[in-house]
Amino acid sequence: MRHLIHSSIIIACMTMFFACDDNTDTIGSSLISDVDNLIASADTFEVTSQTILADSVLSRTTTGYLGRIKDPETYDVVSCDFMTQFHTLENFSLIDEDLIVSRLDGKIIADSCEIRLYNTNNYGDSLTQLKLTAYEMDEPMREDTTYYSNFDPSAAGLLRENGIHQNVTFSLTDLSVSDSVRALKSHTPNIRIPLNKPYTDKEGNTYNNYGTYLLRKYYEDPTLFSNNYKFIHEVVPGFYFKMTSGMGAMTEINKTSLFVYFRYQVNSDSIANVNTSFAGTEEVLQTTRFGSDKTRLKQIAQDPNCTYLKTPAGLFTELTLPVEDIVDGHDNDTIVSAKISMHRVLNNHSSDYSLPVPSRLLMIPRDSLYSFFENNNITDNKLSYQTSYSTSTGYTFNNISGIIKAMNAARKSGNYSENWNKVVLVPVSITTSKLSSTETITRVTHEMTMTSTKLVGGEDNVNDPITISIIYGKFDGR
After folding, report:
1. 8 A C-beta contact, residue 463 and residue 345
2. What are residue 346's phi and psi, to 5 degrees?
3. What predicted TM-score, i.e. pTM, was given to this entire model?
4. Rounded to whole angstroms, what are the CA distances from 325 to 39, 318, 320?
5. Rounded to an integer, what distance in angstroms lies between the CA atom of residue 474 and that of residue 472?
6. What 3-state class would DSSP assign to 290?
7. Which residues pair with 391 in a beta bridge?
8. Which parts of the chain have pLDDT scores under 50?
């Protein structure tokens, strides 16, 4: 049943809405300037929902994820492994070879070499013992290929069979570092992977360590280090870091660095210990692989009494919007606003390591679930919207009128898919830039950390129904 509201009340609401809401679609805003002839009405409609299983998500991120934990809600074991390439500065250069005093049998060597994985935002028990293996890539993963979070470089044959396989046992809290050092703001926790064993390259040349290989490759042909393409394809294809044992912790790797240490002659009286480094940055490819048993996820996705949001590669919520009901009888009306709120079902599961609630949520058409991220799209408040979680209101999308209009236009044209009136709610991470006082969204990616929540809804919703609130407006023509 539709509920008519006095036009003056709606006009006041509309005026305030357009003045204050950043996510508002501009359709209908011109009505505000001439209120005398405006007829306004409002209605609410029920929205249905279900959980859908996300087998994988696009793994395109500047942050790697590493660890293995048991989901406290599903008891599913989730492991995170990641691959990174390394960036070389344009026209990279080293000091004159004759100045290097680190030598063996007259040839230059590296005193040592290591990879450091700098980690932040730990989840779980930071003292638990974990073990990883660092694998040298046999060939680089391709920049022009789309990799999802279920892609396994090992199964794809991309790891070098006779290359580096370095095992490391670690905890996310490095107890070899003193409490006073860990307390310093300048200290960044990191996992150290030594590369000091004898190394044989693909041509059969053997070096005392991996750093010596890098130094000698440079002095043989410095152009191999002059840009990322040459460096990745002819020197260092990358490394894959795979969890091999341990359980109970996960971390974000926000920076990876490959260090080569050596000494050189500063002057006749002084020798300096120095290093050169190569970093995993946004200029090169980084991917994360999430491994889990989907059996339990499939079971909870079928829960008819609610829907779920679970990341990194888990569960999304799909909404079916009642587009036909919304536009029926309103051929001459403008949909001024369409507001929908998604409320959480309180978690009655108790755990020392309960998963956090997704902080940002994206709404996109069901048919855009993959293309949106593959095309590096950002929200446009016409066909895609984002909102933040509020402890008081849950997730509220203040005005999705643009997508309602687009869905109705597709239906009327006859050019539509079976998902024409469906949208998906996806937890995301938002990157912004700020110029003066204006903040602009520059990147939208899948949320890759462990998050989880239940939402009101489902086929047999036992809570208040999900509703979408519509405000219509039109001139009376007098």
Report:
1. yes
2. -60, 140
3. 0.87
4. 20, 19, 12
5. 7
6. strand
7. none
8. 1-9, 11-13, 15-33
